[in-house]
């Protein structure tokens, strides 16, 4: 019994990591309206001390406090309180930042420093606080489809419910800080793509520019003139070679989280996240919204896409759709400074830049009036294609976008186009959305096939009035051209109504 008693008295006391509790105490979210406020106000918020102070393991704290007395208070030794002593993950992270030895001469070195100070801070909190479910991050990497995506996408990206609220640019040398700041305004510089959220002004974008061992935070806002964007400093130039510079950068990173968490409490969900790369399940297709346009890429083009539409055909269709009479009615190529926006094919990788950016449709809009406007938009796109001898061949809601600012719908995804009366009787056809009635006799796909897809994909599974049923019936029977369908009474009735009557 005595031995057992001695063993019990020598047992190690197990203390649970209280990082989550500590973070909840010291990181209450800021008011979300601050992101619509002034740069001077944001500067004050980023410098606000974290209370209680950030815990630091006792040996490191003793050393640093002896060397830099001003650190004591904003930082607290784990020996100072039970709360600090048990916040193990947080204390370990603070030690990693305060013991950082930054280097310059390579963007990899710069990214390592900002990764520890900024990104690791946000990821530590994300794992532990409720707002983390709304926030995700990514870093830019070289892209197999060429340099465009790499050069136009920020180095660091952080979204809140799909809104790009925080980003960063990194350069190798401290002397290149001006270059990093310049890229804050030339790459994606708005929280969401223009026109995607009706009636709501976007907040400012938070950002950092890092060059060598220097880190500085900014807010990116549209000036009152409404033209361009401006990056305004909301911190000084923080030298990560100094203990005080690292502490200030760490404090700013924690307060960035508080701003993000505040925004998350009332953020509208974005249907399209600027700068976020979406990939098909097989990884061969990528999609990314950049500054003012949408970028599509298809690898292994000769195998994956050319059997449906040759590169030369895609060049032809996008070129003819750019005519003045078609530009408003169907998706358009977008030329970026220094990059041709039209279809490109290099090393069997196909890329195209497209505009405008819209909200993807996952099904019919609510109400017959909205549905009529959506169908009218699709028919206008088909009329443009048909007037040049092309057929779309993949008419369905997934290939329609909605432009909220203009309250109209647009036909997209021309990568399955063909020529009228093309033979689709053999491989690789049929396409997934085709029905037994899609093709004409002999396996031919014609203008009428596109219009049957409108009837079967866009006008089915909804309760139509008599005029709507009549349009659907005529489209199914091949009795109308796209131009004639646009004159149908069902569309005319609803198109005549003003939007403010909805």
Automatic annotation (TrEMBL):
<dbReference type="InterPro" id="IPR008266">
    <property type="entry name" value="Tyr_kinase_AS"/>
</dbReference>
<dbReference type="InterPro" id="IPR011009">
    <property type="entry name" value="Kinase-like_dom_sf"/>
</dbReference>
<protein>
    <submittedName>
        <fullName>Uncharacterized protein</fullName>
    </submittedName>
</protein>
<dbReference type="GO" id="GO:0004672">
    <property type="term" value="F:protein kinase activity"/>
</dbReference>
């Amino acid at each position: 019994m005595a031995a057992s008693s001695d063993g019990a008295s020598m047992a190690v006391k197990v203390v649970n990591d209280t990082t989550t509790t500590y973070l909840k105490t010291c990181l209450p979210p800021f008011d979300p309206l601050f992101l619509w406020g002034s740069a001077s106000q944001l500067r004050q918020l980023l410098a606000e001390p974290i209370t209680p102070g950030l815990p630091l393991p006792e040996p490191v704290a003793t050393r640093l406090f002896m060397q830099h007395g001003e650190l004591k208070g904003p930082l607290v030794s784990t020996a100072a309180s039970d709360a600090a002593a048990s916040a193990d993950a947080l204390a370990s992270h603070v030690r990693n930042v305060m013991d950082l030895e930054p280097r310059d001469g390579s963007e990899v070195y710069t990214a390592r420093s900002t990764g520890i100070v900024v990104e690791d801070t946000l990821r530590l909190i994300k794992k532990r606080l409720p707002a983390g479910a709304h926030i995700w991050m990514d870093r830019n990497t070289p892209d197999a489809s060429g340099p465009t995506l790499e050069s136009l996408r920020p180095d660091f990206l952080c979204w809140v419910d799909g809104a790009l609220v925080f980003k960063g640019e990194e350069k190798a040398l401290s002397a290149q800080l001006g270059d990093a700041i310049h890229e804050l305004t030339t790459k994606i510089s708005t929280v969401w793509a223009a026109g995607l959220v009706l009636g709501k002004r976007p907040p400012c974008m938070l950002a950092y520019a890092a060059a060598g061992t220097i880190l500085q935070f900014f807010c990116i806002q549209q000036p009152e003139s409404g033209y361009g964007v401006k990056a305004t400093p909301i911190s000084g130039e923080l030298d990560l070679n100094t203990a005080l510079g690292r502490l200030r950068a760490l404090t700013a990173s924690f307060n960035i989280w508080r701003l993000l968490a505040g925004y998350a409490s009332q953020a509208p969900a974005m249907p399209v996240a600027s700068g976020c790369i979406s990939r098909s399940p097989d990884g061969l297709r990528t999609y990314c919204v950049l500054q003012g346009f949408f970028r599509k890429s298809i690898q292994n083009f000769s195998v994956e896409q050319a059997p449906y539409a040759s590169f030369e055909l895609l060049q032809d269709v996008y070129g003819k759709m750019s005519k003045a009479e078609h530009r408003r009615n169907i998706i358009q190529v977008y030329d970026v400074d220094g990059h041709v926006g039209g279809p490109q094919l290099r090393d069997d990788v196909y890329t195209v830049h497209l505009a405008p950016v819209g909200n993807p449709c996952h099904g019919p809009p609510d109400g017959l009036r909205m549905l009529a406007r959506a169908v009218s938009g699709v028919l206008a796109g088909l009329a443009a294609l048909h007037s040049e001898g092309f057929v779309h061949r993949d008419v369905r809601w997934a290939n329609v976008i909605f432009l909220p600012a203009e309250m109209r719908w647009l036909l997209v995804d021309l990568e399955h186009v063909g020529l009228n009366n093309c033979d689709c009787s053999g491989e690789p056809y049929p396409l997934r959305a085709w029905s037994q009635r899609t093709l004409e006799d002999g396996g031919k796909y014609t203008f009428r096939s596109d219009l049957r897809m409108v009837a079967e994909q866009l006008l089915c599974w909804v309760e139509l009035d008599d005029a709507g049923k009549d349009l659907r019936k005529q489209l199914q029977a091949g009795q109308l051209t796209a131009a004639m369908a646009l004159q149908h009474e069902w569309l005319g009735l609803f198109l005549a109504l003003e939007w403010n009557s909805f």
